[in-house]
TrEMBL record:
Its main location: membrane. It is a multi-pass membrane protein. InterPro entries: MetI-like, MetI-like_sf. It comes from the Bacteria. One of its GO terms (biological process) is microcin transport. The chain crosses the membrane at residues 9-30, 133-154, 166-192, 222-245, 280-307, 327-353. Belongs to the binding-protein-dependent transport system permease family. GO terms for cellular component: plasma membrane. It holds the Pfam family BPD_transp_1. It is found in: Cell inner membrane; Cell membrane. Keywords: Cell inner membrane, Cell membrane, Membrane, Transmembrane, Transmembrane helix, Transport. The gene is yejB. This is Microcin C ABC transporter permease YejB.
Length: 364
């Protein structure tokens, strides 16, 4: 097993390099970088009169430089070329792309993510500041979806083809088909003062008077704010896990060892939970880290934006819009690295749940 783990870890290096290289290359061709963002803010606020214009030599060299700047950056007309060069140096764009990419990889290998372009804080501190909200959402989604899905999936497998199985399958299919963000918008319209009832808050994780509440009041207030976001996210998460659980149990129930156990006179409950459960739940239990990461990083992106929850999803969205590249690449690096390790952890959980599985005898 040690050799298998070492091979997997070594394979993470080229995988992570490929992810970062492709993303970095795409960013080079994306319009509206951080320099353009600053120029847009200055021109919209009339800042060019203060920061750029006047004071240079009217000779031909300055005219050529100004024309080069104007052609390179949209909206840079009227700004001092020296000011633009200072912006490029501040954001690191005075260096060639390959040099910038190499420096980024070297710094990221030491978990040095630098500072945010537009926030007066280091990227790592910013991510740590937003992480508790996303972790809270991810934990609750994973816990609730498993608590609902596993008993429901087992019941559907036992009652396969019955009326109960048919109508619950309809609910599951509808839940799987409706995107979480669309269901979240519908919940806001219905229950957050949209057009019908005003039962739940529209945004935020806590109320404005949070610090003044008692401990019990804080718990009630927290769940009051979390009800709609969690409902929107759990719907699709529980649908996927329910179908996975049902299919896994059906596959095990039809195997020969189950027929033999029943022929020996074992009760249906003993057969189901004494023999089938461990084998059927192998794929569900091993998928727990992946389900958490999925809910943590991807599932909450749109929901955090819809309900204005100040977590990593909202941070990532705003960073992309603002072209805050250090935050964007740091999120990508951390999440990709974590995703690769979660894949390895899932394999190790397989061997822990069922020692008969040996990955060392298989090709990676």
């Amino acid at each position: 097993m040690g050799a298998y783990i070492l091979r997997r870890i070594l394979l993470m290096i080229p995988t992570l390099f490929g992810i970062m290289a492709i993303s970095f290359a795409v960013i080079q061709f994306a319009p509206g970088g951080p320099v353009e963002q600053v120029i847009a803010r200055l021109t919209n606020q009339g800042g060019s009169d203060r920061l750029g214009g006047g004071g240079g030599d009217a000779g031909g060299s300055n005219v050529d430089v100004a024309s080069d700047v104007s052609s390179k950056y949209r909206g840079a007309q009227g700004l001092d070329p020296e000011f633009i060069k200072k912006l490029e140096k501040q954001f690191g764009f005075d260096k060639p792309p390959l040099e910038r990419f190499g420096m980024m990889l070297w710094n990221y290998a030491r978990f040095d993510f630098g500072d945010s372009y537009f926030r007066d804080i280091s990227v790592l501190d910013l991510i740590l500041e937003k992480m508790p909200v996303s972790i809270s959402i991810g934990l609750w989604i994973t816990l609730l979806s498993y608590l609902i899905s596993i008993p429901l999936g087992i019941r559907k497998a036992v009652k396969d083809g019955s009326t109960f199985d048919v109508w619950t399958s309809g609910v599951v299919i509808v839940g799987y088909a409706i995107p979480g963000f669309l269901f979240g918008i519908m919940l806001m319209v219905l229950f957050a003062g949209g057009s019908f009832w005003d039962w739940f808050p529209l945004r935020g994780l806590t109320s404005d008077n949070w610090d003044q509440l008692s401990w019990s009041g804080k718990i009630v207030d927290y769940f009051w704010h979390m009800t709609l976001p969690l409902t929107a996210l759990v719907l699709s998460a529980f649908a996927t896990t329910t179908l996975l659980t049902k299919n896994s149990f059906l596959e095990e129930i039809r195997k020969q060892y189950v027929v033999t156990a029943r022929a020996k006179g074992l009760s249906e409950r003993k057969v189901l939970y004494g023999h089938v459960f461990r084998n059927a739940m192998l794929i569900v239990i091993a998928g727990f880290p992946g389900a958490f990461i999925s809910a943590f990083f991807t599932g909450s992106l749109l929901i955090e934006n819809i309900f204005s929850l100040d977590g990593l999803g909202l941070l990532g969205f705003r960073s992309v819009v603002e072209r805050d590249y250090p935050v964007v690449f740091a999120n990508l690096y951390i999440f990709s690295l974590l995703g690769l390790f979660v894949g390895l952890l899932s394999d190790l959980i397989y061997t822990w749940v069922d020692p008969r599985i040996d990955f060392e005898r298989r090709d990676v």
